[in-house]
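Reposting from the mailing list since nobody answered there.

I have sequence plus structure tokens for a pair of proteins and want to know whether others read the tokens the same way I do. The first protein:
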Amino acid sequence: MSSPNPTPYRAMPCRHLPALLTAGLLALLALTPASADQRTDEGMYISASVGQNRIQSGLPEQSNTLLKAAFGWQFFPNLGLEVSYNYFKDFPGPTPAFSDFSPAGASVTAIGQLPLSRTVAVFARGGQFWWSAKSDFSFFNRSGGPNQTGTVRFSEAAWLLGVGGSYELTPQWELELEYNYYDFSVDRLSGFDSSTGALVLSLKWEL
């Protein structure tokens, strides 16, 4: 007596995979915020950010990259404090005699937040950014003597302001998009006085 032929296995067509992934992502977003609530968020967090910075005045128009790592404490759902390290890539020198430089330093900001729903909130920040950088220079000596070359180091403070919005992905993970404003100036260089704006995307992990 011959055994019945087994039913052949048929793989799911690949064309259904994008639809399944999309459905799974929508289900995840629908389920996870149920236990996340912007209106009750408190405690410590860390975050990593990347942004695009636009130099608006005082220097040639140019865009550069901003990287940021932060530690914060949400004292109440409406009030927090954040300490961060900020790195700006390739600012142009104040004159052609100076090389590009990369300001970097620490900032401290107070954050006021207004939850709009369980998952969405808007916020504003204000504080101080202490930064330093160095730039090489070369001055041509018109009198026939040797050219002057060297390195100048900056160490200054700037105002930092920002507004943005946040979306709570899960009880631990949050996504933020904000606009930050920095008021850069160097007292020793009258040609360097720049206001810059940065659009920043952050991923926050609540501890």
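The second protein, same order (residues first, tokens after):
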Amino acid sequence: MSRGVKDGSAAAAAGVVLAGGRSRRMGTDKVSLRLGGEAALLWVVRALGGCGPVVVVAAAGQDLPPSSGHVVRDELADAGPLAALALGLRTAASLGAESAVVCAVDTPLLHPAVAQALLRCLGPHDAAVPEVGGRVQPLLAAYRTDVAPVAERLLATGQRRLQAVLTELDVRGVSAGELSTDPGVAAGDPALRSFASANTPAEWATLTQLFDARPAHAGSQGFLDSTK
């Protein structure tokens, strides 16, 4: 449900990286997994940099590789991605952002054009959430930063599921077809490999193969560089 009238005009934005997951199935912290000689976190922070300031939500005591992100610590143990979303959006708002592209740290193939397209899709809505590969993708989506209090209210009731916040919002669904026809996405990531993620070593190996198979004239994120 929308909580106010929004005109959909361009406004200050940010990026939010959810980096504090336990990575149980991976067996090691995902932030430091390497792709092309760099930590996964660095690829994601770089991809979101065109949105505005980038907030990195990490667990208390979690070691992070150096990056340009604004690091905040989620002190709520085992509260899941909903708590990280709330903290990330509230921090982004404190940095002057009215909207933010939120993604998990295990999506290092994220292309900047996809992030920008999601912001454009947001318009007057509370969230723009893609459906890619037959799955709704709330962990790579655009949100209004004033969604933070909604997430916090749910947390106070004991809710931990990220999908729960979507039922409280005015959500604009974004199909894979719509995303792939965005001019920037069509030029830079037509196959929407930005949504490839990894929870296990085998999935990371597949993601690495996708990176290694990028075209010879790929840009910094491993996809076609529309500026060339």
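Reply #1 (J.P.):
I read it the same way you do. The longest strand covers residues 13-18.
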